[in-house]
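Handout for the seminar on molecular recognition.
Each group receives one record of this type.
Step one: identify the two inputs.
Step two: read the structure output and locate the region that could contact N,N,N-trimethyl-histidine.
Step three: write two sentences on what you found, then compare them with the reference statements printed after the record.
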Amino acid sequence: RRAQTLAKAHLDLGEVEDEFASSVIEGLSNAQKSLPCRYFYDARGSALFEDITRLPEYYPTRTETQILMDYADDMVGSVGDGGLLVEFGSGSSLKTEILLDHLGSSVAYVPIDVSETALADAKARLMRRYPSLDVRPIVADFSHALTFPADLAAREKTGFFPGSTIGNLAPQEAASLLTVFGRALGRSSRLIIGVDLKKDPRRLIDAYNDQAGITAAFNLNLLRRINRELGANFDEQGFRHRAIYDPAKGRIEMHLVSRHDQQVSVCGRTFHFSAGESIHTENSYKYALEQFREVARASGWRPARVWTDTREQFSVHELIW
Ligand code: AVJ
């Protein structure tokens, strides 16, 4: 009985790791093996993603930043006194500064992220740059239902979800997440959301298969994380990065392809990989403007304005709840 009690105590303490372990085991047990892309972002993965955003081939970040800089005043100029800017998965809150530069001093900023340290760092930086800004971080997973502290609940809300993170979800799941955001933000709220656009497949594939191999390192880092945190024995050299575009599904897929026949043990279970077999690690959906507006409508939002760059590579949509 004592052993049982200890095991249970361990389970309670390691709840977050258990979620990681169980989703890894579940993903590797499927006929098409898969791993959830939300686990890319440990410290090294986050640093590698920052490197990706600066790659010549990876156009989304710089293009979205340009759109935000060009149209920030249109996007948030109408946010009234006492309004709230609510960011889902705020991370380092870097792009947010472009909007904050165009907001009045009575506005409060509510960054929502799972990382307490990312929130603390962002808050410290923003308080230096915007001394009169009220920064009210919430530590939470943005995909779960959210309620605001009582003193913020009644204030006019503008949601912000940049980076085309919505593209990691299939359209139906994307619509469900948008509904979660709408319910959290409440009546008459707005959402400013970044969405990557369909384009020449060559450009799409290059963006996920860069010459410098940073995206490959980012993808393979998932195996390194599983080894470290779950005591697995993946051989990083035994897998290679692959990015493909599926035009029918309108998505980039990232895979890790086994270079040869091999076995890997994860949490005491053995998984077999044949030569050429892949682990599907990420989807990144691309939308035509009207396709995304349709997803928004299905989720209960009303599509309003949309901003793009001149080459129509990336879009920023305004939705009204
Ligand atoms: C952060 C999800 C938008 O899909 O483009 C970048 C992640 N993966 N390179 C994307 C990513 C490979 C990125 N998102």
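Reference statements: The first helix runs from residue 2 to 13. Residues 52, 60, 163-165, 167-168, 208, 215, 282, 284 surround N,N,N-trimethyl-histidine (CB under 6 Å).
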